[in-house]
Each structure stands twice: as structure tokens, then as C-alpha cells.
Design a protein that fits this description.
63 residues, mainly alpha, 0% strand
């Protein structure tokens, strides 16, 4: 029962953080239930990241 309670509290905390960030960054005005329902309907998401400069190094092979 303790593990179940812990998981429930963690889930609620994560949902609260998600709601707060959605309001700040995306201007979301709905309820937590609406937000979770909206995310539940997402089937595909794309994540775009800036390309990092990669340093190319040569390896020398000796036999």
C-alpha cells in the first residue's frame, strides 16, 4: 500500500508540474483533467533539438 501511495503522489506532482509549465510556456488555460485528456489523445510527437557541434577525431589503428 505504501508503494501505491508513493506512485500516486508522484503522478500527481508530475501532473501539477506539467500543468504549471503548460500555463507558463504555452498559455494553457484549461484544467488538469483537460490537459491530461489532451495529452492522452497524442499518438505521435516530434522533438526538435539544436544540432551540437561534434568534434571529429581520427583513430589510428596499429596491428
Amino acid at each position: 500500500m505504501k508503494v501505491h501511495n508513493f506512485i500516486c503522489v508522484m503522478g500527481y506532482q508530475l501532473a501539477t508540474i506539467l500543468l504549471s509549465e503548460s500555463r507558463k510556456k504555452a498559455g494553457f488555460t484549461g484544467s488538469m483533467q483537460t490537459l491530461l485528456t489532451t495529452f492522452n489523445n497524442v499518438r505521435l510527437a516530434l522533438v526538435f533539438e539544436k544540432k551540437k557541434k561534434r568534434m571529429v577525431t581520427e583513430k589510428s589503428h596499429t596491428n
